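Hey team,

Filing this mostly as a record. A colleague (T.K.) asked me to run one chain through the structure pipeline before their review meeting, and I want the input and output archived in the tracker in case anyone asks later how it was produced. No errors, nothing strange. Just documentation.

Input sequence:
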Amino acid sequence: MRTRTLLATAAGLATVAATALPAAAIKYGEPDDGAHPYVGMMIAYVSADVDGDGDEELVAGWRCTGTQLDVDTFLTAGHCTYGAEAVAIWYDDDIDHLTGADFRLFDDAMVNADAYSLQAVSHPEYDDAAFYLHDAGIVDEIVLNDGAGFDQYGTLPELGYWDGQLATRKKDRDSYVTVGYGLQWSMPTRGKSEPSDNNNARQDEGLWIKLRAGGELVNNRQFDAGKGQDSYVVLSSNAHTGGTCSGDSGGPTFVEGTSTVVAVTSFGVNETCAGSSGVYRIDTADDLAWIGGYVG
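Output structure:
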């Protein structure tokens, strides 16, 4: 389940459709409490005729998570940048105070966000029909608004980091922390047009809080192409360690206790965000070369 969390605009306004499902927030996580100030929530903008008058505006389409790698470079998932014409970013731990007026139109977001950009690109070999093969994205040429700045940034891993971990005995492997904004639970109702407060409904907008959860390496899986970069890492996603859900797409997986980003959240395996989750490894030669070309 790849998910880019679609943003519903205020009543009566258009909602931007997308073929990809939005990524959600951390399940069973804990507040980040300033541990990763360089992780932010991005909102992607696309052109739409909101008023039906033939004039298009940049309107909020979906939200994802990502990591600031330097003053003007933000790493996320390829399916988060795909189709985005502009991006606004917030870095606060709690941005639940946002209203539609803050972010619905890009013109408003440029003023209200911590940062914005008109440059969002996906990996040059990214294919939305097979997003998991090269699921890395970059927001570049970021403009920071007054008051936004960083003392530290996320850093890139060494080449072949995950190969070394997979060759290591389980008890000696690193531990991981995944960070993201989004859904904190997801239990879609079936056969009900309107969820009520007392049934199991998918949590949607609101509660946009930066959360973190532990992760455990389960496996590495390759797709049919068989190339080393065409693989993803499987992390546990359960009530004991926490895990990803819709809205966390593009969010970083760090080596615990470091700022090293070794993967970005790519997809889950079901609508309830249970079981394991797939994170796209960025330690391969093509990814490090492409991402590194934007950093510094």
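Quick notes for T.K.: The domain at 5-25+37-144 is CATH 2.40.10.10 (Thrombin, subunit H). Confidence is low (pLDDT under 50) at residues 8-25, 185-206, 225-229.
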